[in-house]
């Protein structure tokens, strides 16, 4: 667990990678100072980023983080805030991301979703060669406007302010009040945006001879006001949504539906399982059934799925983490157990199998018995076990065999979960029985 102190703050020890004189470092230092002043639990803070130099920022903080596609950071942040309103969600994005994701920025402001957006505004796409961006001033020289930019720059503050943002500030990285303004924005209950002007010393400064004083002159020339431009009390969307639906959902949001613990597991340590198969092979639903049975056995369970954008073709992989203690991290580098269900699964699973040691177990059908691994290899042959398992039920059969073979929790829990699977219950129960036969073969 990371310990946050006024000395170390929320920053880890990794040095910034930014160019000398870049404004990104001072902005992140101000964010760190703001978090220290607010004394927030780092587990309740999420920094959301996208592409660009600013997108490198989240890795330098001992908080939660989410990194995604260019221009989509505000969308991710809004989703996190709606799902987990108790979290403090901070977006770090560049001026390029504001342009690419302009519709997301406007709609988050319009809804007044309670996230804080820090715009690292250096007037160009600094990571990819200094091309002009939506905020490049008129007349500025960039890699794509060598004769001077003809466009009027986007006024980010006016845009979000006109569309409902309830806290808006503009200034530069040289403003002494920046840490305080960041803290005010995080403290503010609605949508808050800070348009922070800075110097890109790699591209914009050399091409336009801009200095610290030049930023102030630029603000005056464009007639862009500075300071707190909007601060108003408006309903925050996540809170308003829950209040509006309180009669149906309860004041705290959707009521959880806990699975009763009816069985007892003897598992004493965390165990990870990966099942690798094909799209349409019911890989994810099989993993979910195992997770439900584990929870019914008193364990904590987490599931993470991976499949290509084609959805109906290619691989389908589920990662299961089971533990007698709460699970904070669901990532798996080398699993304890691996089930390879199909040829698509073999493409993904073969590197995992090769990385596994003698303490792991790999479960395969006879057609994949040649997979290279140092782990214990169990070849599960349906014909030899006297059972028939369809392609769409093979994932559950192999996972059932793994649960029984490793003794993760009582098989009766898996049978109960299968019986509760609605209209598919009988078929799933038969598949569990087939999996048990495979485990004993």
Structure report:
The chain is an alpha/beta fold and 441 residues long. It has 2 domains: 24-242, Rossmann fold (3-Layer(aba) Sandwich), CATH 3.40.50; 271-440, Pyruvate-ferredoxin oxidoreductase, PFOR, domain III (Pyruvate-ferredoxin Oxidoreductase, domain 3). The chain has 16 helices and 15 strands. It has helices at residues 24-38, 73-83, 95-100, 102-111, 156-162, 178-187, 204-208, 212-222, 237-244, 246-249, 283-296, 343-355, 382-385, 394-406, 411-419, 425-440, and strands at 45-49, 64-67, 88-94, 116-121, 124-125, 131-132, 167-172, 192-197, 227-231, 271-278, 300-306, 315-323, 337-340, 361-364, 376-379. The protein has a 7-stranded mixed beta sheet with strand order 2-1-3-4-8-7-9, sandwiched between helices. A 6-stranded mixed beta sheet has the order 11-12-10-13-14-15, sandwiched between helices. Helix 11 runs parallel beside helix 14, helix 11 (283-296) packs across helix 15 (411-419) and helix 14 crosses helix 16. The longest helix has 16 residues, at 425-440. Mean pLDDT is 93; it is low at 1-7.
Low-confidence stretches: 1-7
Secondary structure class reads alpha/beta
In this structure, how is the largest beta sheet organized? Answer: 7 strands, mixed
The assembly state of the depicted protein chains is single chain
Shape: elongated
């Amino acid at each position: 667990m990371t310990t946050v102190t006024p000395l170390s703050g929320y920053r880890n020890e990794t040095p910034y990678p930014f160019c000398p004189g870049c404004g990104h470092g001072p902005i992140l230092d101000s964010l760190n100072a703001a978090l220290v002043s607010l004394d927030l639990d780092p587990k309740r803070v999420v920094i959301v980023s996208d592409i660009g130099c600013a997108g490198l920022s989240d890795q330098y903080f001992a908080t939660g983080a989410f990194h995604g596609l260019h221009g989509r950071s505000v969308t991710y942040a809004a989703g996190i805030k709606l799902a987990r309103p108790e979290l403090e969600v901070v977006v770090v994005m560049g001026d390029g991301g504001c342009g690419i994701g302009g519709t997301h920025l406007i709609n988050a402001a319009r809804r007044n979703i309670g996230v804080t957006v820090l715009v690292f505004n250096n007037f160009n796409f600094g990571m990819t060669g200094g091309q002009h961006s939506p905020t490049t001033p008129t007349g500025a020289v960039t890699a794509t406007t060598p004769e001077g930019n003809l466009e009027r720059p986007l006024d980010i503050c006016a845009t979000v302010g006109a569309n409902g943002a309830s806290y808006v500030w503009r200034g530069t990285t040289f403003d002494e009040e920046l840490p305080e303004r960041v803290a005010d924005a995080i403290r503010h209950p609605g949508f808050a945006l800070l348009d922070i002007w800075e110097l890109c010393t790699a591209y914009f400064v050399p091409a336009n001879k801009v200095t610290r004083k030049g930023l102030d002159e630029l603000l005056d020339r464009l007639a862009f006001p500075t300071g707190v431009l909007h601060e108003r009390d408006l309903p925050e969307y996540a809170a308003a949504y829950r209040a509006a639906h309180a009669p149906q959902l309860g004041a705290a949001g959707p009521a959880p539906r806990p699975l009763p613990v009816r069985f007892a597991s003897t598992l004493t340590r965390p165990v990870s399982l990966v099942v690798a198969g094909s799209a349409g092979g019911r890989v994810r639903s099989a993993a979910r059934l195992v997770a439900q049975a584990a929870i019914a056995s008193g364990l904590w369970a987490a599931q993470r799925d991976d499949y290509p954008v084609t959805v109906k073709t290619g691989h389908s992989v589920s990662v299961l983490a089971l533990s007698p203690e709460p699970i904070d991290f669901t990532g798996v580098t080398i699993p304890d157990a691996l089930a390879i269900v199909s040829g698509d699964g073999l493409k993904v699973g073969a590197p995992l199998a090769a990385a596994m040691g003698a303490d792991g177990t790999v479960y395969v059908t006879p057609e994949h018995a040649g997979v290279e691994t140092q782990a214990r290899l169990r070849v599960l042959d349906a014909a030899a076990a006297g059972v028939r398992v369809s392609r769409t039920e093979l994932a559950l059969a192999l996972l059932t065999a793994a649960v029984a073979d490793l003794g993760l929790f009582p098989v009766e829990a898996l049978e109960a979960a299968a019986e509760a699977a609605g209209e598919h219950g009988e078929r799933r129960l038969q598949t569990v029985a087939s999996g048990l036969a495979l485990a004993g073969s």
